[in-house]
Structure formats: C-alpha cells, structure tokens
Amino acid sequence: MARSQDIMTGLVRASFVQNLFEARAAEEGQTPKYGCTLLIPKTDTTTLTALQNAIIDACVSASWGDEAKIRTMIDNGAIKLPVLNGDGPQGVSKKTGDRHPGFEGHFFIRASSGENYPPQVVDELVQKIASNDPSRLKSGDYGYAVVNAFTWDHPKTGKGVTFNIGAFQKIKSGDSLGGGGGVYTDKFFKAETVAAEKAPDETKGGAGAGGLFG
C-alpha cells in the first residue's frame, strides 16, 4: 500500500457524519472504520484536480508506473477510482432505489480511517467536537476535510485507490441530509468567520479533473 501527501479540500458537504465519531463495519465480519461521505460540487475543479493529483501520486508511489501509464490504466478501467458521480448509479440508495439527498450535481468520496485512528473533528474556531452531537455537526453541514489517497491491490478485484480522512472542520450549517449526526488540525485549519468556496493554493496544480472523473 502506498499513499499520497495530505491535502485539504475546498468547501465540501458532509454526509453520514455519525461515522466520524463511531467506527462501524460496513458489513458483518468486516473491520470497523471511521469515516463519512464528502460531497464535492462538480463546479469545484480546484478540489477535484487536487483529488486527481493525490490519486496519481499514490499510484506512482505504489510503483504502478509513471503518470502517463497511470492515466492510461485509469482510462482503461484498470484502476478502480474512489471519486464517484452523484448523478450516476453510485448516488442511488441500494435500500430505497432513490437518489441520496444532496448528491445531485456533485461528485463524492467515501473517506475512512482505521478503528485506531479516529479523525479529528473541529468547528469553525478549531474547537474540538468530541462526540456525535447534531447541534454541533450533522449530515448536510459544510466544511473542509484533510484527506490522502492510498492504494490497494487485491488478487480478485485488482487495483484501486481509496481516500483516508484525517480531519474535518465544520465551517457552516446546512440543511439536514439525514444519516445522523493522525492529522494536526492547526496545520491545516484556521478560525473562520466567512466560508471560502475553493481549495487553498497549495492544493492546486496539474491537469483538469474532467478527464479523470468524467
């Protein structure tokens, strides 16, 4: 397994935030993990490009090839990507058949971390949110996330990339979407009074995200 450097997203919307505070197994018998779903507007090409660069960085670090080869492997479907289309079939609930609320017009990632590595969760003043308290953070709220991409290679399912989440900073409240209520936050987050709409300069660079995510 290889991983990229940590990056901070632009303003994203969080869903299934209860898993930021309680590690849960996706299916019976699986290892519990912390995490949440992050919704990225399709218009936020800065964050999407930063995620693309992190994916390629992790793949190159895994010695799967140089950037050109990695892009070819992605185009050919040889690497499973973690950035999913909220307007596509991945944005539809398997239980109800309905599209998940808030997913329209967005790409999304399911970012997780191991059961021994709970993400740091803070508010706009970088004050710790220590428990699943919907009055302080709920699914549908907006904020910044610190994530990194890491690779996996399974003998049956092949190669792929997943995102790890190290921290989340709530910036502003949003309409509830349901789904319940090792990064140093002071390195990435500052006290905010006005929400920024794009990722910071240090996450910029590289080719546009459109070619990778469609």
Describe the structure.
The chain starts with 6 loop residues before the first strand and ends with a helix. The protein is built from four helices and nine strands, in the order βββααββββββαα. It has one domain: OB fold (Dihydrolipoamide Acetyltransferase, E2P). It has 214 residues and is of the alpha/beta class. It has a five-stranded mixed β-barrel.
Comma- or semicolon-separated keywords:
about 210 residues, alpha/beta, OB fold (Dihydrolipoamide Acetyltransferase, E2P), 4 helices, 9 strands
Numbering strands along the chain, what is their spatial order in the largest sheet? 2-3-6-9-8
CATH evolutionary superfamily: Nucleic acid-binding proteins
- Tell me the CATH architecture: Beta Barrel
Sheet of most strands: 5 strands, mixed, barrel
Low-pLDDT regions: 180-184, 193-211
At the third CATH level, what is the topology name?
OB fold (Dihydrolipoamide Acetyltransferase, E2P)
CATH class: Mainly Beta
